[in-house]
Amino acid sequence: MTLEHLAGRAYGPVSYDVSRVAVADFVAATGDDRDRWSETAPPSLAGAVLFAVAPVFLADPDVVPFTRSVVHIDQRFRWHRPLAVGEVLEAAGTVAGVRSRGAAHFVTFEVGAGGPEGPWLESASTFLLSDEAAGDAADEPEPPHAVRGPVEVAGESPLPLEGESLPPLRRSASRADLVRYAAAARDWNAIHWDHEAARLAGLPGIVVHGLLMASWILQAAGRHAAGPAPLTSMRARFRRPLRPAEPAAVSGRVVSTEPEGAELALEVQAAGIPLVTASVWVTR
């Protein structure tokens, strides 16, 4: 059985209240700059808006049998304007396409979100769904719930010249951090907080949300552009998982600069191994 018959199926719209509490909780859960994001929402809130709709898709009775393993493969975001605290967004999703290869089903899920002030977000995700485990990793014990590696806040920083490296940003997440992020982003995929669910999916244990790592990338990029709308687009590829408490860092370089913005190439690494790679456009 395949999921190709889902192409074109729509989900939503779902309301998302960009309340002061919701923004503050999300900023705290992602380790972002609380002083910067008090009147407007950070671009990374796109992850929470995506997961206002994605659970409706994943709960579709036609989809549920294929959710033993749900792997986020890649993610694209495009932002159109600043998002003010107090706005209420309407978000809707559509299955834009499905490719099936045996037990693996690659689903492209597109989400658009906007409000009275106009469109805010365009999003496209690729999810790998399967009724089989995605791997056969050896079982690893979980660290204590509050243990994590070094964490830095991304303060404002001048944009380096074209071709130069970006300053690294050290990050890590504890098991408790993953629960806080799950609550703030509504991303309750059990592989991020339940050991047995992660093992059934073929993982060594629970892993950090891909979109949490993407938020670290967006913070590392956004510190190089002032104002409430520092980013215009991101394309990210999730390559390998990160375990809780494992030290990681965001690094990158300036690929090109233009009068209206700059393209940055960034990646999250742990022990020198790329986990997430991304291309981000910042404003100037």
How would you briefly describe this protein structure?
The protein has helices at residues 20-30, 46-58, 175-185, 195-200, 210-222, and strands at residues 10-17, 69-79, 88-101, 104-115, 118-130, 165-171, 231-238, 248-258, 261-270, 273-283.
Describe the 3D structure.
With 284 residues, the chain is of the alpha+beta class. The protein has one domain: Hotdog Thioesterase (Thiol Ester Dehydrase, Chain A). 19% of the residues lie in helices and 37% in strands. The chain has helices spanning 20-30, 46-58, 175-185, 195-200, 210-222; strands at residues 10-17, 69-79, 88-101, 104-115, 118-130, 165-171, 231-238, 248-258, 261-270, 273-283. A 10-stranded antiparallel sheet has the order 1-3-4-5-2-7-10-9-8-6, covered by helices on one side. A hairpin with a 2-residue loop joins strand 8 and strand 9 (261-270). Helix 1 runs antiparallel to helix 3 (175-185). The longest helix is centred in the N-terminal third of the chain and has 13 residues, at 46-58. The protein is globular. The N and C termini lie far apart (49 Å). The model has no long low-confidence stretch (mean pLDDT 96).
Q: Tell me the name of the CATH class.
A: Alpha Beta
Shape: globular
What is the helix content? 10-25%
What does the main sheet amount to?
A: 10 strands, antiparallel
List low-pLDDT spans. none
